[in-house]
Amino acid sequence: MKRVFGKLFGKVSKKTIRNINSRIIHLPDDLLDPAAFLIVSGPMVSDVWPAIYIANTLQKVFPEKDITVICKRRDSGLFNMLRLRPPVHSYTGHPEIPDTIEPDSFPDGTVLVYPYATVRNDMQNILCCTSCGIRMAPLNDSSPYINLRVKTEVDSYPDILSQMCSALKITFDANWKPSIPEQIEIATEKFMAPVSGRMLPYIATTPTALAILEKNRVEIPLRTIVLSGRNSEFADMDRDLKTAIIADASAVVTDSDDLWGDACACEIPVVGLDRSGSFIKWTYMKPAADEREFLEAWVKLLKTGW
């Protein structure tokens, strides 16, 4: 029995132990009938998508349970894509427990869900400072801040979440896709087409990605919308509106993980250039590692169409 629990639970730091509720954890009952859920979303732009996808499944499987979210303030509005917006508490700079939450306010049996394969150093202030007795994540390696590590055999989303849920006898909602709220769609149309209110087809891109295409004189069949850079009118746009622009694009061409993650989550045809290997991994989506692969992927997309 000790060996079994040793695989499930990593070593927990003294600080973590002090903050974990002292009640005994009962498995699998505490997972099949939890008191509530706390979902922690990371600080990177693409981090919000695993958090949104797992929130959707938990809402569907546990409709009577309270689900609370902690996320970067920039991403708060994206949780309006869910059937019901959960209470969302946000941090602005480094990840930390927001002032709107009392760390000991969660009821006994609350399950903290951290939907990522690694624990960033800057996430420790959140993961060790709540009273949640179970802290669950699909980690590749053990962490003192996660005491229920669910191993998966895949490395891309949303399959990571699907396998984690399957191991816990939770039915993952594989058919759900993000949907832009109507009021955001209307605001986007007013911004993009203030006169006609009707947006023409376009490709969303970044300055560097567009420069590579133009330098190599490849075909660009539609209007391009550059969403970043000093000369872009979209650079300082709210996250909700920028995501809506990506979701309505015919295609996305990017060297930025920000646009890549949004396009993958919204199932928009996307060509990415990931020189550092840091893009979020998404099922059936693979970015190029260099310019040659990037151009080949763009030509392939042109031939395939969208």
Offer a quick outline of the entry.
The protein has 306 residues and is α/β, with parallel strands linked by helices.
Task: Describe what you observe in this structure.
- By secondary structure, the protein is α/β, with parallel strands linked by helices.
- It is 31% helix and 13% strand.
- The N terminus is likely disordered.
- The chain has a six-stranded parallel beta sheet with strand order 3-2-1-4-5-6, with helices on one face.
- It has two domains: 166 residues, Rossmann fold (3-Layer(aba) Sandwich); 123 residues, 3-Layer(aba) Sandwich (Rossmann fold), CATH 3.40.50.
- The termini are far apart.
- It contains eleven helices and ten strands.
- It is globular, with a radius of gyration of 21 Å.
List keywords for this structure.
306 residues; alpha/beta; Rossmann fold; 2 domains; six-stranded parallel beta sheet; four-stranded parallel beta sheet; 11 helices; 10 strands; 13% strand; disordered N terminus
Q: What is the domain tally?
A: 2
Count of DSSP strands? 10
**What is the CATH architecture annotation of the largest domain?**
3-Layer(aba) Sandwich
Strands of the biggest beta sheet: in what spatial order?
Answer: 3-2-1-4-5-6
Q: What is the arithmetic mean of pLDDT?
A: 90
Low-confidence stretches: 1-22
**Structural class determined from secondary elements:** alpha/beta
Helix and strand element order? HHHEHEEEHEEHHEHEHEHEH
Portion of residues in beta strands equals: 5-15%
The level 1 CATH classification of the largest domain is Alpha Beta
CATH topology of the largest domain: Rossmann fold
Enumerate how many helices there are, as a single number: 11
General shape? globular
